[in-house]
Amino acid sequence: MKIDVLTLFPDMFIPMLSSSIIGRAVEKGLLKVNLYNIRDFAKNKHKQVDDYPYGGGHGMILAPQPLFDALYHVLGSCQDGKPKVILMSPQGKVLNQELAKQLAQEQHMVIICGHYEGVDQRVIDKFVDLEVSIGDYVLTGGELPAMVFIDCVARLIPGVVGNPESTQDESFARGLLEYPQYTRPYNYEGYTVPDVLLSGNHQEISRWRLKESLRNTLKKRPDLLEKAELSPYEIELLKEVKQEMEGS
Ligand code: 4FV
After folding, report:
1. Cα distances (angstroms) measured from residue 74 to each of 1, 45, 233
2. Is the whole model's pTM more than 0.85, yes or no?
3. What would the pLDDT profile of 27-39 be if each residue is shown by its tens digit?
4. Which of 93, 139, 140, 177 has the most neighbouring CB atoms within 10 Å?
5. Residues with Cβ < 8 Å from 53, sequence gap 6 or more?
6. What is the spatial distance between Cα 141 and Cα 145, in angstroms, rounded to a whole number?
7. Nearest C-alpha to atom 15 of ligand 1 is from which residue?
8. Which residues line ligand 1 (CB under 6 A)?
9. Segment 210-248, tens digit of pLDDT
10. β-pairing verdict for 2-7 and 130-133
């Protein structure tokens, strides 16, 4: 996967692109990220990239010229078909695992990191295929959202996370929250591990995990249960969970 990032702060990306799982994905050539400084495309003598909003109002807007020329440069130099152009913005489709799975199929994406109060609407009208938000709150810039986006999409690229199964059996993979996890020691300060997990009975272990996944989701994100397509077996387990919670 290739991702071109248009940003005023390319240095913010270096640590995440050279550390841990994403760093290894870049080393292994599974992920290629090109960082473009929008200011390098500013043609005015002061390399200004923002300007006052027409119609008044507070704050500044990212001006069209530097962004248009940055996009002409990036889009002009690609041989592999038109990449999907994404603007990180609070007005966008809220990122979730389903959207991440869809976009993980893309071979080439361009991410625009907004700044100030936003970007000139003509950039959106002419170039942007999809606006993506990482949540209903306002940040100082699109850089952190772009990093969140790159992380959650890149880890779905085959070969990026060690065991591909781990992205199948995790929170949201099935629309449910994950089950409780434990590791050694068995007894820590008197807190012990559920015995079923040491039973070696994999059928019992997966039943316990599914039941705890349903319990966690019911407790912490009941909204997800509304949307989840549960099997008759899962509905049975959920009934047990509810009876246990009523009993407790
Ligand atoms: C944001 C979000 C976000 C808005 C103004 C950058 C800021 C500034 N992007 N999800 N939430 N962006 O708050 O994606 O330009």
Report:
1. 15, 23, 51
2. yes
3. 999 999 999 999 9
4. 177
5. 59, 60, 61, 117
6. 8
7. 115
8. 88-90, 114-116, 118, 133-135, 137-139, 141-142, 145
9. 999 999 999 999 999 998 999 999 999 999 999 999 877
10. unpaired
